[in-house]
Every structure is written in C-alpha cells, then in structure tokens.
Sequence to fold (345 residues):
Amino acid sequence: MDKEYAVFAAEQAKELLGVDSPTGFTAKAAEWVRAAFSALGFSAGITTKGGVLIDLGGADEADALLLQAHTDTLGAMVAEVKGNGRLRVSALGGMRAENAEAENVRVYTRAGKVIEGTLQLCNASVHVNGEYGATKRSFDTTEIVLDEDVKSAEDTRALGVEVGDIVCFDPRTRITESGYIKSRFLDDKLSVGILLGLAKYLHDTGKTPARRVYAHVTVYEEVGHGGAGSVPAGVTESISVDMGCVGDGLQCTEKQVSICAKDSGGPYSYEVVGKLIDAAKREGADYAVDVYPHYGSDVEATLSAGCDIRHGLIGAGVYASHGYERSHIDGVWSALKVLKGYLAI
Fold:
C-alpha cells in the first residue's frame, strides 16, 4: 500500500479533529464521518445510538469482519454556574484537570450559541496566589473563565449558559514537516482517518475483500459502551482500531503500529492476535506487540454485550494518551498495512 493513503488518513483525521465531539455531543462529527465514507462510494448510515455503520463490501457474509473506531472524545460538562460567573465542570470520559489547565475551550449552549473561555486554576495568578504550585489540580480547584464580561451567575445565565452545557477543549492539531501528528483527541479520530484511508484504497483499486467487511464508528467509547451495539449479522470477528499505547515498559513507538495482546479487560483472541502479527510480517509493517496496563476498547464492550465473536486491537502508536497526544505518519502507514494484510487485499 502506497504511503499516500497514510497521508490521506492523516488529512482526514485533521479535518475531523476540527469538529468538536466529546461523548454525548457527537451528532455533527457522526454526520461528517457518514458523508466522508459516502463520498468514497460506500453505504453509510447513522445508527439509533448515533454512531456510523459502514458497509465496505465483500463476498462472504457468513464470516464477516467488523472494524471499530470511535469519534467521541474527552471533554467536559457544565456542573455549576458559580457566583462569580465562572463555571465548574465535570469531566466527560477521562479528561484530567492537570492536563487541561490553561487550555482554551468552547462552551456550547442549548440555544446553539458558542462562547469561548479558558480552563484555569481558581485564583490563577502566580503573583497573587502563594499556593499556586502546591494546589492539587482537579475539576473542583479549576474553573472555566469565560471570555465575556461576566461577574455573577446572573450575568453568565443571561448569555444562555446553564448546567448541562457541553465544554469542548481546543485540539490544537498540527502535522509537522517531519511527519509527526500532534493533537488532543488523536484517540481516536486518527483511527477514523485510518479507516477512511482503507476505504479510499478499496475505492481506488476496485478491490473487494473475500469476506464481508463492516466498519462501526462509535460515539460512546470514552465512557465504555461504544461498541455494545450495531453488530451486523454474520460477524465472527471484530478488530478495534484505536490508539496504540506508547510509554515506559512498552515496545511500541509513534512510528509503529501496536498490536495489543492484553489490556485491563484481559487477553485478546490468541487466534486474531496471531493473524494480525502474520499480516504485519507479510506487508512489511513496522509493528510491536504490547500489553496495555490501563486500557479498554470498543470491541471489549462488544463482547460484554454478549456477542459471540473473536476480537483484536491495533493502533498507530500514540504518546501522551488522554493529553496533548503525538503520533506519526509512519505509524498510520503501518496500521493501514496490517489492515490490508488482514483482509488479504
């Protein structure tokens, strides 16, 4: 597979990263995903739950493969309009205050208004707060400072801001000349880009997989139940395409594809992991096999929902997960090679 498909995948991911979509606020991103797959000639529809189910074609419907990625991200929700007009928030998914501090945000009101602000430590001026460095960061010690002239809860509510409104953090996406991809929420919009790269490869080459292949872009992965529904009849295997972990004690780098043998939910199918390794070797993908200590995936939710399938997990290597993340075009390319080899196309 030519590297152009990895470049395409990264470009698609960059565009999708520009669409705010924390868990529970994903309709616009799902429609973007549906339109992107449809533009490549594949049938794609929005599920009742709000995800996107795509039919990538293939002959054998009795031994079908389901690929899964997710377009929901971390974020926050307004939990309190404070007396000073600022906002206390509650995390959506695994967003962490110590990582999000000083990040620009967009607050989406129920009326459709978007108000900018910043997550700051309460009493954030170093020259004023003698306990600045000693204060433990949490969503109780930080607050959203709106970029509006508000001094009271009444001022803020007059803007239409209320408890339950969605807070989206700026992804700050960049692709460097050296091929690094930096952004919040590469987990897992980079993998949606990878599935689009696979779809473009199928479109451009006119190849049809021997087995039926579906893709499910889920919208509740960050809270644990994204892949629990929308499994087409005939699916016998499912592979999550999610971020590959990079960190101490693991082999994978940002320039590789990671094949996960086990995570916090237990081992992945020994058979599927073996076939993924064989596919990586056949296609010349730069890969690593790792065990992730703190991780769960869409496909584990699928198994927990009672589906009788075999499961696997791969992903381009991503450093600083759930923070300001970084990957590389080469890792994306290797992930695409593994998928190509697994489908024998």
The chain has a mean pLDDT of 98. DSSP finds eight helices and 19 strands in the chain. The first helix runs from residue 4 to 17. The radius of gyration is 21 Å.
